[in-house]
Design a protein that fits this description.
- There is one protein chain.
- By secondary structure, the chain is α/β, with parallel strands linked by helices.
- It has 11 helices and 12 strands.
- It has helices spanning 7-14, 32-40, 55-62, 83-90, 104-116, 183-189, 203-207, 243-252, 256-268, 273-279, 282-288; strands at residues 20-24, 46-50, 66-71, 98-101, 121-123, 138-142, 149-153, 160-168, 174-175, 192-200, 213-215, 222-225.
- The protein is globular.
């Protein structure tokens, strides 16, 4: 079944106001283009689940798309704070933001429980931590075999899980390599799954290296080709991270009105992410391009 579609149509069909969405990829393979399309379509009232902070959280907030964040690390990578998040937490400006915080281990456990369709997941992540005090999402449980005390977290099943990867076929068999986060677990936990990729490839390319498939087509609802879809984060084998852009954002984001102006110019004034990419100076893309370095092929054998 051909599940290829446009980014506009995938977001318009599956992401609705008030939903919980997961946009995952841990510093690499980050689905930035999908976040931009949510802003472009002005979808509001969302809860965002995410393991780590990325500047697109500032952008989603300034676009008034988010009411709540479920997260285990908040920051603008190596460039300091996410300033829009900070304003809303410290000053409730322009309005407040609800944050549900976990440790990395705790949020991983939530995704694992969701992917496994389990009622909860035990974890040792919170031993000795005061994060459990008053936290409705973390409960103490007793090991039925040893009587030992643990903490447990509830499953997280996003209404829509969105991930980015290097390539997929038209059916939605997704292949990724390099640093991986929780993309596989997040995809299995999601009630609907949208995948953006750098390129759609022939079925035979996927079949020639099946062990590189991290998400099978059976759980994917839409697959979208979006070159440069993770910018300014990196994609192994395609482009490197744009640290200069990330540092510039850290300064720009100190002023809420500047973020809104950036969104108006770069997202709302463009019809698509592809149009925004085309409007950038070609030198930017040339500087981020990487030199090919191929791994050695493996022998699957044949008869």
């Amino acid at each position: 079944m051909d599940k290829t579609t446009s980014l506009h149509d995938a977001i318009a069909k599956y992401v609705r106001p008030g939903m919980t969405i997961a946009l995952e990829g841990f510093g690499h393979l980050v689905p930035v283009a999908a976040a931009h399309e949510i802003i472009r379509q002005r979808i509001q009232g969302l809860t965002l689940a995410r393991m780590s902070g990325e500047l697109f959280i500032d952008q989603l907030l300034a676009g008034e798309c988010l009411d709540k964040i479920i997260i285990s690390f908040m920051g603008n990578s190596s460039a300091g704070s996410l300033q829009e998040v900070r304003r809303r937490v410290e000053k409730q400006y322009p309005r407040s933001l609800e944050i549900e915080e976990y440790s990395h281990g705790g949020l991983v456990a939530r995704y694992l429980a969701g992917a496994s369709k389990l009622p909860f997941m035990p974890t040792k992540s919170y031993r000795g931590s005061d994060m459990v005090v008053g936290h409705e999402g973390i409960r103490e449980v007793i090991d039925p075999f040893t009587g030992e005390s643990f903490y447990a977290v509830a499953p997280l099943n996003p209404d829509v899980s969105i991930i980015h990867a290097q390539r997929a076929d038209r059916h939605g068999n997704v292949q990724a390599w390099g640093i991986l986060g929780m993309q596989q677990e997040v995809a299995f936990a999601g009630r609907k799954v949208i995948v953006t990729v750098e390129e759609i490839v022939d079925d035979e390319v996927i079949r020639s290296d099946p062990n590189r498939t991290i998400v099978p087509a059976t759980i994917v609802d839409a697959v979208v080709e979006v070159p440069w879809g993770s910018f300014p984060s990196s994609v192994q084998g395609y482009y490197s991270r744009d640290d200069a852009f990330i540092r510039q954002w850290a300064e720009l984001a100190r002023d809420h009105d500047q973020i809104v102006e950036w969104l108006d110019t770069n997202i709302h004034a463009t019809a698509s992410y592809a149009e925004w990419v085309a409007l950038q100076e070609p030198q930017r893309w040339r500087e981020l391009a990487v030199t090919p370095q191929y791994s050695q092929p493996v022998n699957y054998g044949s008869r």
